[in-house]
Amino acid sequence: MQRRFLFQLLLIVLGSALLLSGFFLDRGTATAQVMPTPNRLAQPTLPVEPSQADRGAQVYWLTCLPCHGDRGQGLTEEFKLTYPEEDRNCWTSGCHGNRPYEDGFTLPQIIPPLVGAGTLQKFPDALALRSYIFAAMPYWRPASLTADEAWQVTAFLLRENKLLANGEDLTEANAAALQIDAPQPPTKPQPSPVLLLLLVGFMTLTPLFLLLRVFRKN
């Protein structure tokens, strides 16, 4: 009876190990699936009930993206590759260089990122950021945004930098209280799936090894 009980227990433990392994392997397979490459320059779509920041995403796409990048990374060499080949060198004479074409403008050599750690830190609060955008942006046509568009794109940038909750609106009443240069809480690290799999394997195989030793002695 004892040998039969141990054998049944061994099967239960082994079956549990296989189920857990299958769960993790299934997750890994799903993660490894090839997803279609999105069009990085496509106009963002609005949800059914767009927030202020959702509308700001469209303002950013229309007026800010060509210079500041599709992810707010700035005018990086990688982002330039999304341009048509003939437009990748924007500083040649007659384009956006020192002698631009009629009604053109000289493009700065360095265009800073807007999303990421420390990118907006020169602005003390959301009101200062919005005031700058409203007065000086876009670079090629300063002060051309409407008052609402300036609020919208400010909300979008703050949301992308995790400084504004999705759905929260910015106004003159609350923007000055939303500090940008305040230190943000550190992100809690997530456990590695590989570490979890090793832990499950250890917890499963250890009692299995002990049961095998008992089974052999009997």
Tags for this model:
218 residues, mainly alpha, Cytochrome Bc1 Complex, Chain D, domain 2
Low-confidence runs of at least 5 consecutive residues: 25-32
Please outline the major beta sheet. Answer: none
CATH homologous superfamily classification of one domain = Cytochrome c-like domain
Head-to-tail CA distance between termini? 11 Å
Task: Kindly provide the name of the CATH class of one domain.
Answer: Mainly Alpha
Shape verdict? extended
Under CATH, the topology of one domain can be stated as Cytochrome Bc1 Complex, Chain D, domain 2
Radius of gyration, in Å, reads 28 Å
How many E-type strands?
Answer: 0
Helix-strand pattern, N to C? Answer: HHHHHHHH
Could you estimate the helical fraction of the residues in percent?
40-55%
Report on the architecture of this protein:
This protein has 218 residues and is mostly helical. It has a domain at 52-175: Cytochrome Bc1 Complex, Chain D, domain 2, CATH 1.10.760. The chain is built from eight helices and no strands. Helix 1 (2-32) runs antiparallel to helix 8, helix 2 packs across helix 6 (147-160) and helix 5 crosses helix 6. The longest helix has 31 residues, at 2-32. The N and C termini lie close together (11 Å).
